[in-house]
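During the practical work, I worked with a single protein chain and the tokens that describe its fold, as given directly below.
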Amino acid sequence: MKTKMSPLSKFYVVLVFAFLYLPIGVMTLFSFNNTTSTYIFSGFSLHWYEEMFSDAAAMQALKNTLLLAVCTAAVSTILGILAAVGLFNSRNKLYKRAMMTVTNIPMMNPEIVTGIAMMLLFVFAGTLVNKSDVLGFWTLLIAHVTFALPYVILNVMPKLRQFDMHVYEAALDLGCKPVKAFFKVVMPEILSGIITGCVMSFTLSLDDFIISYFTNGPSFQTLPIYIFSMTKKRVKPDMFALSTLMFVVILVLLVLMNVAQSRADRKGKSDSK
């Protein structure tokens, strides 16, 4: 039975969405401004997008960020699938509960605590091997995988619970090897959860600042840290243009992820009939 929303509820929903998305809309609008003003829109122009692509430091930071996000998504997805399958097949309920609790810690732990702890770990490891400049791409990748991995596990686990393991066992009985049976039978059923976890890992790595701030080195600078360094002086509108492009990319990824999720749900419902 459908319930009709009251005018006050509708106003509250509109107010929440305006609070969330109006700043992004203003940023997008002023990324097309033909002056440096951040409060007067003087006219439409693509000048700041041209400035953005001609800024070598910003483009290098963007390349670093995308490289880190892609590597984080790939490593987190592979490790997350292996961990989820291992936990799902575990017979020890106490061990499974303990591992799921440990998996939730990076999500619940404050990012500043995680960032400082990872920095101390990397610096300590560097002193053991007599290396002072240990912070860089690899430390960032390890740190990002650490906080992105739980999201992959928690997206894949529900899909494994929904899967009928008798189908996998039937594939084994028909002569299929375990690895081939997994990719042919199990993987298509949990693919929507894998895609969701992969996209979440990518987006979380893309905009992370706090953990990256503590674990990055001078040789590898990500875009959020580059933008933060510009806040000590006036931020130029070319950063509005760059942020707008990043928002559009993330929006497209989320739309594609939701489309894939809805198709998988419709397929699951049709197969169950």
